[in-house]
Structures are given as structure tokens and as C-alpha cells.
Amino acid sequence: MPLENIRHIVLVLSGKGGVGKSSITTQLALALSLQGKSVGVLDIDLTGPSIPRFFGIEESRVKQAPGGWIPVEVHREQTLPRARQANGDASTQTSEVNGSTQDQEQGTHIGALSCMSLGFILPNRGDAVIWRGPKKTAMVRQFLTDVLWPELDFLLVDTPPGTSDEHISLLETLLKTTAHTSQLAGAVVVTTPQAIAISDVKKELNFCAKTGVRVLGVVENMAGFVCPNCSECCNVFSKGGGEVMARDFAVPFLGSVPIDPAFVMLVEEGVRPRYPKGTVVGGTALVEREEGGEDREGLLVDKYRECSLAPVFEGFVGRLVGDIEGRDGA
Description:
Blueprint: E1 6-13, H1 21-34, E2 39-43, H2 51-54, E3 63-65, E4 68-70, E5 72-75, E6 78-80, E7 94-97, E8 100-103, E9 108-110, E10 113-117, H3 133-146, E11 152-158, H4 165-177, E12 184-191, H5 195-211, E13 215-226, E14 233-234, H6 241-248, E15 253-259, H7 261-269, E16 280-281, E17 284-285, H8 300-304, H9 310-329
């Protein structure tokens, strides 16, 4: 069966729409790939499939093969050139990746990344999906049983908001088709700091508790705004509500993610992130903005390395991988 090739399945959930689940899913996938993991992304948000747009592969189409669908490739396993630093030079530092020291002077080894979404199947990007519950349920089941995933370390499932037909079908099918219960690693729950979002996302945490899905962590998205003209970050939508909610439900809090216009430009236009002189995130100086044009060359994952959010998600996936693989070894 297709899911037998997958070591760990992670759901990305939220009880509230518009909190940035697809953005979080995309960056978790890129960060995992940068750590050498092979990754798949399954988009089951049937009425608003945005994963193709985030990865810049909207024009792609899935291919039929004996037994099912072949997912769309974002990039293959390979070694990226050295990342640029704030002074314009390539990095010569070392970092810990997959438990061993990786020399950045030799480049970064990345895992393969592929995606599956209804967006690859619809005849036109603007077509509305007007389906009743049974058809949605059937589509989710088909995605889980008919996609011929390659060998994957992680499959991330981007879900619609709420706790409706898609979620019930997803869990029922996963529990029937996964080779063992530990294959379904758990869920990352996304919220924004505002109280109105927190109140809806609490329902998702209750959903996880009632269905037996382990919460791997809560991510507080849009907690701040990175000014594109200076190195300041201000809390437009407040901050801290997600951490309080995680503490109330006794689940891990992975951290907060600010809004970064450079990431928006990367996704929307493919522009490599650049920052004002002196911008530092997590102790790392970011690549400075240069005069004379915008750089659109390179793979998405290569350009993402220079985004201010990359070190944030590197920390997130480090904790997730340690938690999941630690339980496997227990």
C-alpha cells in the first residue's frame, strides 16, 4: 500500500481559517528537507487547495501510473551550494544535521520533496469545488490510498479548518491503512495570538484529545511583523496567546512565527529574501538587500535558506524530529 513507504505522518490542524496552516506546512516541509529528510506534502483542503501556489508549481499536473497517482516533484535529493551570508560571502561554518556535523563549505544536502493536491487535478485554477460531504470523504480516502509516494521520512498533511468531514475521513482511513499506530506521529496545531482565534483553536485541541491524536506542538503564527525597511519586529496582533493555550492544555509550545514580507515575496514572486543592513535573527546576520534588481534564480528551498523564518523553523523541526524519533527508539 502507498502509505507503507512513509515513516512518519504529521497532520497540520487548526480550528480557525486564515491562521496560515499552509504557510506553516510549507515551511515545515522546507526545513525538514534542509535537514536531509525526504518529505511529502498532502493537501486535503479541497475547497481551497493552496499548496501548489506556495511551492510555485501551480502549472504542474499529476501523472497516472498503474495503481494510482504519482505526486508532483518540487525538488530532488541533492546538495545545494553554500548559503550566502550578510557580508555576501558563502558560509564556512559547521552545523549539526541528522546527528552528524555537516560542513557548509561543502554545501547543504537536502532531501527530496513532493506534493499532492486537488489543485493539480482541477482543469482550471479558478474552478470552485462545490461538493457535498460524501464526495469530499471519497476524495480524501482516494488521496490516502491511491497516491504512490516514494520512500518518505515525513508526510505532512495540510488540512482545512474545523473538525468536519475531511478530518473524520482522514483519521478513519489513516487508522485503517497505516502499518502501525506509531506511523501517525501526531499533529501540529496552528493559531494566531488573538483571543477570537484561540477560542476556535481550542476546539481543535479537544478534537485531538477525543480522537487520540497526539499534539506534537502548538505554533503561534503572525505573532509580530518584520518591517521590510528596518530590523524591528512589532506585535501587530499581540503575542503570547498560543503559548498560554498550550500551557492550559498541557501540550508543547513550539514557538511564535512573525509575518515576514520577504517570505511573502518569495512565495508570490520567487524573489530571494534580502534584509536591511544589521538585521539579525537568532544570532545570525541575514543577507543584506542589494541595489539593482531582484534575484529570482534558484530552487525555492535554496532561496528559503536566506529567509528570516528559516532559523525559526529549523528549531521547530529539530524539536519535532527529536520527539518523534525519540519515541520510536523508546
